Amino acid sequence: MFGINRRAVTILFGFLALAFVVGAILLFTPQAGQEAKGKPVLWVNGKAVYELDLLRLQGNDPLYAANPQGLLKVLVDTHFLEQVILTEALKQDAARIRVGSAEVRKEVDRIREQYGLRDKKAYEQFLNQIGYTDAQLRAEIKAQLQIQKRLEQVRSSAKPTPEEVRFYFEVHQEDYKTEPRVQARQIVVDDKKVAEEVLAKAKAGEDFAALAKKYSKVGAEQGGALGAAPGESAPKPVTKVVFPEKVAEAVFALKGPGLVGPIEAGGRHYIVKVEAYLPPKVPTFEEVKDQVEKDAGDAKANGALEAYLEDLRKKAQVRFAEGVGYVYKNPTVATVNEREILLSQVLQPVFSNQQTAALIQQGLGELAVQFFLPQTLERLVDQEILVGAAKKSGKPFIGSKDEVAQAYLLYETRDVTATEAEARRFYAENPAFFTVPASAEVVGVVFQEEAKAKAFREAALKASDLQALAKAHGGTVTEYGAVNPGQLPAVLDRLVFKVKEAFPKGSLGEVSEVVKLEDGTFTVLLIKNRKPEELKPFEAVKEEALEGVINRKRQEKAQALIQKLRQEAKMENRLAQVLAELTPKTGEKPKEEAPKQEAPAKP
Hints:
isomerase; Triger factor/SurA peptide-binding fold; Chitinase A, domain 3; 6-stranded antiparallel β-sheet
């Protein structure tokens, strides 16, 4: 399913990331002379790629580490060869880009610095280790720099029109929505009694700025004004981040002017006078024009780069030698409104997924294929349908295919609203979204002997110097800090958060029973500031509840739209049939012979 509650920030450009991986491997893979490269395996635009080159690359590919067999071998080979083909085509296209010797020298110097190769002997040993001469290394570095420059050239040449920039803002307005802010003053003191006295004075009508100048340990010279520049004393709008978390929650829960505190946080006590509450708002285009132009420019560049790589692959003339040790199969696995989706396009995101690679290395590659390939193909089908609908709409959508698909859903669901009644129902149905988890400050003291742990426990109820007490009884102190349920080892977590009754309390905090751990050691916990789980009141989270309703309704509307577009589209899904055809029969190995190809291999 396409997430639509925020703009996608990470775009997969087909083979782009993998092309760079291959390039990095080429840079630091031992090379051999031309005569020692073995036989050609394939030609890309007439340039040969040799057997030993591929074997070295294959040795650095984690997908081959598990020695894939059968269908998985066919899929891994196809995916691998697609990377090689695109990388070679990219290097050839970038070869015309000018790179000066000074740029290469700078990169060589960076490598030498990175690897500590300060003298000539160390550098020569490094070259020998990676199998390069100095000239070969510089040539490879030049090729890498040419690729970088070519890709940047493609990106920088794509400039959005004023119409595209304004439409981009219209679609992505929520991304520019401001956070709630307050104009406020604060008084921060170290003593709770002083804080209570100051609060009483403020409630009695004494000037808050004057009280801040007299008592506050922070910002006294500015009358406690938050957001004020040096030398100024008028508060400026600030967001939650300027306050400790507990203080921020209380301050912003007011939703208007008022006094908050004293609230203890980090050993200090805060009193805040909120002068004005500024709710979130969507700025005008002019207010955020510079940022929108930058974001739209990035999107336009993403689309141009994706199109460039697809076109480069499409035009690549690929020919395979006979009797090679790889199987290359790249049939059409689906059609959407006469547009083809090829097997390699599905394999790329699947094999780039770390979870897939981990399953393959565990010998569960077939399971990964059965689960991830159909799922990924469905997502690509949805993407193709949405991109087609976006083009048909006539609106100036820009970006990669994934960005355009996301933007189209955002645009078509932009008018969704929510009522307070719906927000209250959402709040009631999803209490976990609005609940502050239980918390406690925990220190553990570990002992090798139960008797020493028990003696420490008795003494801890009367002592105040933890380190001295632990040392005297042979214990090791572990500071867990402020924790929530699930963050401690299981047995300790149950002790802190599942036991309902409080433990006996001393100056060091609550002192737990002695607990034996799985490793045979014994632990005593010291617990402070234990707080139960708390459901925030609706008024404090009303805006979040409204947003939750809107997001849910937009997702439902988006799914309905996708289903409608699917019903209207001409689609054929051949994945199951293709996989069956590519699966070697029992006892049969995949034919290790790639077809000769004079025409471009399908991208």
